[in-house]
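ESCALATION

Customer reports they have been waiting on this structure for their group meeting. Please prioritize. Original submission:
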Amino acid sequence: MAPNTLQKALHLLFVAPFELSASLALAIVQGIAPGSRPDETWTFRQAFSITMSKVLVRQLSVLQRPAGLTLRPGSEGDRFVVMAPSRQDLYRGPMNDPLIAPGQVGATWTPSLLKKPTTQKQKWGSDLLVVLHFHGGAYVVGDGRDHDTGFPAQTLLAHIGCSHVFTPQNRLASDPGGRFPATLQDALSLYVYLLHHLHIPPSQIVLSGDSAGADLALALLRCIGEFGLELGLLWPGAATLWSPWSDVSVALDTAKITWSLNYRSDYLDYSFLHWGAYALIGNGQTSLTDTYISLPYKPFKGEVPIWKTGMTVEWVIEEHCPHDIILLRKTLGFEEAAEGLRKAGEFVRLN
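Update from on-call: job pushed to the front of the queue and completed.
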């Protein structure tokens, strides 16, 4: 249950200042000696950044502020585009919700706006490869703008070998009307936009996502597998999943999260996962075990090559790194962690 206004005010006045001050002192003390850091191989900057990020994430979880997304272009200028919903009949299955209707969705092109061909005879060249990348943030924070997803977009450009990255500002569950299936509706609208408005061949589209964004990419793939033939939606050329949050229902199990071997060395606090999970399902209006939210409850067969960090076929590990390193690699001081990116680039080029 979300905290009320009084609880938030009391937390800001009495709890947050003490917790931030104490955590700052602890982060400095722990960071000085390698043996006391969350991971003794980390630098002071890495240890300090992880510790303080976890505290800040915890404050976000308590305050639970609405995202307040805007569809104005902002500093992205003409690289930011707004798409109207697709035809209503395209939103099948769980996307057909009596209370949550498809809405407008914005997205940012990197490095530049991809313009639609002026005539139907014009075709895209073989050098065009678009990565549709969904951002992480537990479905409650983040957006596709430069300040939030610009670094992952540039990272994908550098390592995947794509010509463009398309980063959506899909609706968030922290805003009114943003619970499931709003984000899945937005994801479908974006994919239809690339296929049917820009007429990009599906083989030249890569679905991608980090953390909750990877879960959303998987949900879109399930949608294509279930309804694609009747809706004329073909499989994309490939998919890359970065630290996928594929089983959101785990957020209910506090003990399982906090007893994880990596919990101490990660910046995610269990309260943040609680907030994201409960906001996504509208505090009980949908089940966390819905197969479009927590995909392991009903595996599906897809016809798309998938790169997932941690696949059992080829195990690629970024040693001593926290969750979702593609998003916060620069912020947390892990710029050198690029082996998974290099491998993913090879995978996409081969497929």
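Sent to customer with the following note: Strands lie at 80-83, 105-110, 130-134, 164-169, 205-210, 238-242, 306-308.
Escalation resolved.
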